[in-house]
Amino acid sequence: MPKEVKVPLSAEEQAGERPLIAATRADHAVFVVVTLLYWSTLYVYVPILSPFMKSGGYADGLIGIVLGSYGFVQMLVRFPLGLQSDKLHKRKPFLMLGMITGAISCLLFMVPGSWLWPLAGRMMSGVCASAWVAFTVLYAAYFAASDATKAMSNISVLTVAGQLIGMILSGWLSDAYGWNAAFGAGIVLGAAGLALAFAVKEPREGVARAPISLRHLREVIRTPSLRQVSTLSILAHSVLFITMFGFTPLKATSLGASAGQLTLIVVAFMVPHGLASLVTARWLVPRFGTWNVIGAAYLFSGLFTVAIAFSPNLGLLALTQALNGFAQGMHLPILLGLAIRPFASAKRATAMGFYQAVYSVGMFAGPFLAGFVNDRFGRDYGFWLGGAFAAVALLLTLYWKRSTGSDSI
Predict the structure, then answer these.
(1) Least buried of 26, 66, 141, 184, by fewest C-beta within 10 Å?
(2) Selection from 381, 360, 374, 386 nearest residue 54 by Cα
(3) 3-state secondary structure at position 11
(4) Can you give the residue ranges of the Major facilitator superfamily (MFS) profile domain (predicted)?
């Protein structure tokens, strides 16, 4: 049997097999903890935010404005922050910015007297969320280019885990010690994350990547598939920020839920949400096709969003959350991957920056419009609005599937 001859790797291939940052296990561990603290800080008050404001006597319309301001700020800030990060080749300062603004956000919610303080707090959390792109770029540099998928899979799990930790703490602390306990915990988590962020490994010269480019932006925007995916993502985030990250907690409290019981509603949504992210790309898409899975996700998320309005007790509400959590967890990761798939590596950062800025429209428009619908017609009609957004997305999915004549975008 002839002896196998090993062909030497080219310089480019060798570079692709080496991480941009030689990170040890300890470096990975530090980054993991900082990421968990970041998402915990950002989400530690999300389940109680609408009940907290309702307890202060604010109308649903005003609550919708406060909830929507989170997405509005990201529409304005995400892309410029990405440009500045790429220009400096530095990600670590933006990690720290995320921690600082997350802690300040929680502090502003504790200031009594005016609805402007919660508005300022939620807007500051939008700045915090806009720093996320720096986390993903820096973490990817800890892996070889060939392991990029593994890196993004890991950080997706960390995202859901950090959100879940924060949201579980939210209900427990509020139930035991009052609303401000959750905000106080957010300050502590943010401060701890900021202190630990100093230990995050990044070279003095920073990490270069194919940057977000205004020059490429026009070409990126003209790509039909990106426009399709971005439109679907706006609608998906509208539904998400009307439901679990918006008015579902208020529905739960209207059915008699304590702050502690909100934790169970959160877990009912978030655990299936995370599981769906893990199984969709691996099993559902290869078996049923991209368009079919996206369409099914919108169909079920629309049905289970409307079902929230008809939930007579906490048990059935929790069931709608479990089913809705899984449905909404199906399409979001698919859309994220599709957003950058058509582009060469030099344009992917620009495509992702555009995509993230655009889907923030849904974070703003969903709760903003639902708040005014609730004020005019009653809170359950906001969930009907969420179902309508999902129905529009389903119709667009079916239309684009038929026009492409393919199972994938």
Answers:
(1) 26
(2) 374
(3) helix
(4) 27-405
pTM for the structure as a whole: 0.87
- Mean pLDDT of all residues belonging to the chain: 89
Indicate the DSSP class of residue 147: G
Residues 169-189: tens digit of each pLDDT: 998 899 889 999 999 999 999
CATH code of 210-409, in short, is 1.20.1250.20
Q: Domains of the chain: which residue ranges?
A: 20-208, 210-409
| Average pLDDT over every residue of 260-276 | 89
Alpha-carbon distance 43 to 24, whole Å? Answer: 29
Scanning the structure block, which residue is given the tokens 């208020």?
A: 250
